[in-house]
What we know:
By secondary structure, the chain is α/β, with parallel strands linked by helices. The chain has one domain (62-324): Spore Coat Polysaccharide Biosynthesis Protein SpsA, Chain A. The protein is 37% helix and 14% strand. The chain has helices at 2-10, 22-42, 102-118, 120-125, 138-151, 167-178, 198-206, 242-250, 252-256, 262-273, 315-324, and strands at residues 91-96, 126-132, 154-156, 186-191, 195-196, 213-216, 218-219, 232-233, 237-241, 278-281, 286-288, 308-310. The chain has a seven-stranded mixed sheet, with helices on both faces. Strands 5-12-11 form a three-stranded mixed sheet. Strands 7-8 form a two-stranded antiparallel ribbon. Helix 6 (167-178) packs across helix 8. The longest helix is centred in the N-terminal third of the chain and has 21 residues, at 22-42. The chain starts with a helix and ends in a 15-residue tail after the last helix. Pfam families: Galactosyl_T.
Amino acid sequence: xxxxxxxxxxxxxxxxxxxxxxxxxxxxxxxxxxxxxxxxxxxxxxxxxxxxxxxxxxxxxxxxxxxxxxxxxxxxxxxxxxxxxxxxxxxxxxxxxxxxxxxxxxxxxxxxxxxxxxxxxxxxxxxxxxxxxxxxxxxxxxxxxxxxxxxxxxxxxxxxxxxxxxxxxxxxxxxxxxxxxxxxxxxxxxxxxxxxxxxxxxxxxxxxxxxxxxxxxxxxxxxxxxxxxxxxxxxxxxxxxxxxxxxxxxxxxxxxxxxxxxxxxxxxxxxxxxxxxxxxxxxxxxxxxxxxxxxxxxxxxxxxxxxxxxxxxxxxxxxxxxxxxxxxxxxxxxxxxxx
Length: 339
């Protein structure tokens, strides 16, 4: 104890009349060490969770780490601290879904994690998050809590679950407030029945404007055969540049007019305000799954340079799509499975 006593005396804690004895100080040091071990080793994920809730209540999302779908990126720097060059693309993809759709989220996590593993640059460029409103079911609350702890890729919005009653508005405005110094260049709203090829998305966005930009499959794509609505991007998946996301969060046009088909209404806000001068119609690289339906300007067979395919409503359509794009081609041989 001679060295410890010497340290206590240097700190002025071992002298007579000191309120803390050497033995007490040793216990405090050991206790602090145990607490640090528990927090940073036993429960490290507590420092990587992007959103959380207590019981069925919604909480605001935390700043996300890089691509929670990629295990290799768990300790990456947060977006707000990343240096960004003019040609860099950083995309936040918010996939709108429902708390109870566990199987779909598991499929999408796998699909996007494989893309990030095969092409690590995509893990740097894209963050994939699953978005839904307040969780009201006690069962969903418990199971979604496990997903958040394990994957950290869920954003729970403060809204009542809906498709066309303000969920998209709440998503954009929440993201703008949650990440005020974000390095994201674009925020994309996507459906959970859309397959996005991340590399094709990122490469196409590299040539797009960084401001006042609106990107997707423009509708109506055939004004002779469809009612001539003012132009908007299909809800399958469309992106806004970061400045437009911030504008949506504060604009009167979006705040007062939220109820209606969400993709049409997003276009409506921008059209009324004279925004989104830089528009990128990605047809025919973004399209609906055809199946047995007749082809149209928004629905056709698969093409090699696809960016996104929509209307993958069931597992058979997902399987057909994944086979076409050779997603399972890298399955290694093994005696443990026979496919």
